[in-house]
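Instructor's aside before we start: the two examples that follow are unrelated to each other. I chose them only because their records fit on one page, so don't look for a connection. First example below.
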Amino acid sequence: MAFLANPRYRGGLAGSQAAAVVLGAADADAAPMPVLVARDPYASFARIAALFEHAPERPAGIHPSAVVAEGARIDPSAHVGAQAVVESGASLGARSIVGPGCVIGPGCVVGEDCELVARVTLVARVRLGDRVRIHPGAVLGAAGFGLAMEDGRWINVPQLGGVVVGEDCEIGANTTIDRGALGDTVIGEDVRLDNQIQIGHNVHIGAHTAMAGCSAVAGSARIGRYCLVGGGAGILGHLEICDRVTITAMSLVTRSISTPGEYSSGLPLQDNRSWRRNAARFKRLDDMARTLDRVAKDTDDT
């Protein structure tokens, strides 16, 4: 089974050895094999592939090596895996899975049908909605990076808020989401975060936004709904990004964005010789601009 969603690969249909291909109606005549015509071939293929994904059985109950505090509340249908820790005041909803080595900190709430795959840590005051999936190594609710300078030394600013994650979210491996300083860090419904992402304290991410790996958002930034953030992109603190903004990979956002669209920054890759030559000229850009202004003024005067 294969799919064709990008017209650039249409020429590959003739040589494909797939037994069947999911594609759009416009490409059906080019396929020599049986086809399944779909309005959205990629989404349809995803649903088909899900039928072949076999998750391991996680029976209800608590593994003998797990440590569950007396004040924790575990739904009878939930699963707590080997060497997991559930601390006092934490709760785990129906049919949710806490995989091996996970830590559910005091007062943390896990909704129904959630899955914490393995070694996930919910530090403090984290609330997960229903059907949230978190991959290994992720840490939610660690202290945000709040510091005050006094007499030449740093003082930690207590992070008294929490983290709220909406329903149907997915959080990638080794991603970190800091708890808020006073209010909460908020991840909206159906947000998808890739691996190794940093979300600072008091950040708000709107519903259905997706962020690729190694991107980072500094504290108190607000990102709208249906945004796309490319890998390695950075968003400075206290900025506001409106709905339906795409930020391309490795871009740095230094100002708020109020108009939907696609935004980029940074320099494209060059051969090393060209890069060195251009880098040497960067220092002269201001002088060159001033020279051009003088030439333009002299031309206007004449």
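Example two begins here.
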Amino acid sequence: MIQSLTTLRNWLALAGFIVATFCAPLFGAAAMPGTWYAALNKPAWNPPAWLFGPAWTLLYTLMAVAAWLVWKRDGWRRPLLLYFVQLLLNAAWTPIFFGAQELGWAMVEMLALWTAILLTMLSFHRISRPAGWLFAPYLAWVTFAAVLNFALWRLNPA
């Protein structure tokens, strides 16, 4: 009985981390790319629009699993605080970039996000190596996104 309650608790916690993590993109859902973004000058290596949905779905899933693994080992400690800080920064980028159309401020925010991701990844790695490595694709993607954000900012001066 206790074993099944623990198993149920773990599965519910994983579901909670998935739901909480996927709430981040909902924050920016009102500020979607539109005609403004379509009209921007873009570098030749700008990814096609269809790639972003599947990429972020995979990344958010990996992030949630990583947070869950850390929670199972360490509970509600500093690494999960870092996790939620980076998640808030993740959620803030879309309204700044697409909503406010502030490419420079979005770049500043992106650098804060990148730093928070790295700190989260390192803190996760100390508790669970798999959890730390699950953050590697996210850090790589955000590194690419930061370079793209910078290129868009430079190609489209205000």
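The mean pLDDT is 92.
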